[in-house]
C-alpha cells in the first residue's frame, strides 16, 4: 500500500471533497481557501465549524497548510502530489489552444531549430508559464566542413548540414598551424563528409587518419583530430535547450526572494545542469510527467512545478522533451493536455523531417 493510498484510506468522502475543493480553489485563485467559501459549494449542507474540523484533520495528515496571515488553507507539496496523482481531472484540449499550437507547425521552413523555437514561444504564450524544449542531437547528413583560424590558439570548425543547418564549434588547434594545413585538413574531411552524419563521419575519420597518416601532413592530421574531439566532447552536440517566456514567471507581484530563486533556476537551465538527468526522468515512462517543487532537484529551489512530456522520432525512440515551468499552483488540468499535444506535434515534426 503506497503512502498516498494510506492517506486516502484515512479520509472519508466528506474530507476528500473538502480537500479537492481547497486544492482546486487554490489552483484557481492562488489564494488560501477558507471554510466559509466552502460551505457554499459543498455537495452536502454542513456548517463552517464542521469544515474547519475537517481542514484541521487534513492539516494533521500533512495535506494542507495554513499561512500565518490567513484563516484559509493551501495545499502542501504532499497535498498537491496526492491531488495530481488521484483527484486531478484532466480536461480536453481547448480548441483555441490547439489552433495556436497548430499555427506554429504551418511554416514550411526546413530549419528544425527555428521551428522548435517557435513551438517554445507558442507553448509559453498559451500556458502563461515558461516553456522548455529539449531538442534532439542534429543528425542530418553533412554537406561541407570548414576550418577558420581565429588566433594562435583558437579556431572554428564550421559544419554545414545538407538540410541547411549550420553549426560552429570552437577548439584549440595544434601550435604552428598554417593556412595550407587548414586547407588540407578541410579537403581531407570533405572527401568523406558528404552524405554522412556527424557520428558516422567521426567513426570513419578515426580509421582514415590511422590508415593515411603518412600522406597527411602531421599538422593537418592534428587539426582534424582536434576538430573531431571538439564535436564529441561538446555537450551541445547531444541536445539544445530552448527556454521561452521566463518573463511570465516574473510578475509584478513576485517577491524579491522568489525573484532570486527563479533567476537561479534559469541560470541552472542555461548551464544545462541536470538536463541529461532530467531527460532520463522523462524516459522512465511515456506520456506527461508532473514534478512538483523539490521532487526534482533542478526545480526544488525555486519552488516551481514542471509538466513535461518526452517526444519520439520515427523509430519510437525518445529524442527530446517539451514542458511548461510555472508556480506550483499551475492549472494542471489545463496544462497537461497542452503539453501532451505539443509533444505529439513535435514528434510528428521531427519524424516528417
From TrEMBL:
Residues 115-336 form the Heat-inducible transcription repressor HrcA C-terminal domain. InterPro entries: GAF-like_dom_sf, HrcA, HrcA_C, WH-like_DNA-bd_sf, WH_DNA-bd_sf, WHTH_transcript_rep_HrcA_IDD. Coiled coil: none annotated. Keywords: Repressor, Stress response, Transcription, Transcription regulation. The keyword Transcription applies. The keyword Repressor applies. HAMAP family: HrcA (MF_00081). Belongs to the HrcA family. NCBIfam families: hrcA. Negative regulator of class I heat shock genes (grpE-dnaK-dnaJ and groELS operons). Prevents heat-shock induction of these operons. This is Heat-inducible transcription repressor HrcA. It comes from Thalassococcus lentus.
Amino acid at each position: 500500500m503506497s503512502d498516498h493510498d494510506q492517506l486516502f484510506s484515512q479520509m472519508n468522502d466528506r474530507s476528500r471533497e473538502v480537500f479537492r475543493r481547497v486544492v482546486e480553489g487554490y489552483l484557481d485563485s492562488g489564494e488560501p481557501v477558507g471554510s466559509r467559501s466552502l460551505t457554499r459549494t459543498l455537495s452536502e449542507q454542513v456548517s463552517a465549524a464542521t469544515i474547519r474540523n475537517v481542514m484541521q484533520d487534513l492539516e494533521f495528515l500533512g495535506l494542507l497548510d495554513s499561512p500565518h496571515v490567513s484563516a484559509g488553507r493551501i495545499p502542501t507539496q504532499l497535498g498537491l502530489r496526492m491531488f495530481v496523482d488521484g483527484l486531478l481531472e484532466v480536461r480536453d484540449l481547448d480548441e483555441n489552444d490547439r489552433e495556436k499550437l497548430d499555427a506554429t507547425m504551418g511554416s514550411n521552413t526546413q530549419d528544425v531549430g527555428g521551428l522548435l523555437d517557435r513551438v517554445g514561444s507558442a507553448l509559453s504564450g498559451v500556458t502563461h508559464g515558461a516553456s522548455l524544449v529539449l531538442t534532439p542531437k542534429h543528425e542530418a547528413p553533412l554537406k561541407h566542413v570548414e576550418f577558420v583560424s581565429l588566433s594562435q590558439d583558437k579556431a572554428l570548425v564550421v559544419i554545414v548540414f545538407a538540410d541547411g543547418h549550420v553549426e560552429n564549434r570552437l577548439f584549440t588547434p595544434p601550435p604552428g598551424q598554417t593556412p595550407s594545413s587548414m586547407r588540407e585538413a578541410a579537403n581531407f574531411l570533405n572527401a568523406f563528409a558528404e552524405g554522412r552524419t556527424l557520428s558516422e563521419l567521426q567513426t570513419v575519420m578515426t580509421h582514415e587518419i590511422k590508415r593515411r597518416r603518412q600522406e597527411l601532413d602531421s599538422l593537418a592530421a592534428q587539426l582534424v583530430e582536434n576538430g573531431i574531439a571538439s564535436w564529441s566532447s561538446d555537450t551541445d552536440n547531444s541536445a539544445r535547450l530552448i527556454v521561452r517566456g521566463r518573463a511570465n514567471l516574473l510578475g509584478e507581484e513576485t517577491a524579491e526572494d522568489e525573484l532570486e530563486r527563479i533567476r537561479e533556476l534559469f541560470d541552472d537551465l542555461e548551464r544545462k545542469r541536470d538536463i541529461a538527468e532530467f531527460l532520463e526522468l522523462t524516459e522512465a515512462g511515456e506520456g506527461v510527467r508532473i514534478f512538483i517543487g523539490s521532487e526534482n532537484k533542478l526545480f526544488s529551489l525555486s519552488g516551481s512545478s514542471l509538466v513535461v512530456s518526452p517526444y519520439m522520432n520515427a523509430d519510437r525512440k525518445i529524442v527530446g522533451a517539451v514542458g511548461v515551468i510555472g508556480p506550483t499552483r499551475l492549472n494542471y488540468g489545463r496544462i497537461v493536455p497542452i503539453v501532451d499535444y505539443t509533444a505529439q506535434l513535435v514528434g510528428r515534426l521531427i519524424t516528417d523531417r
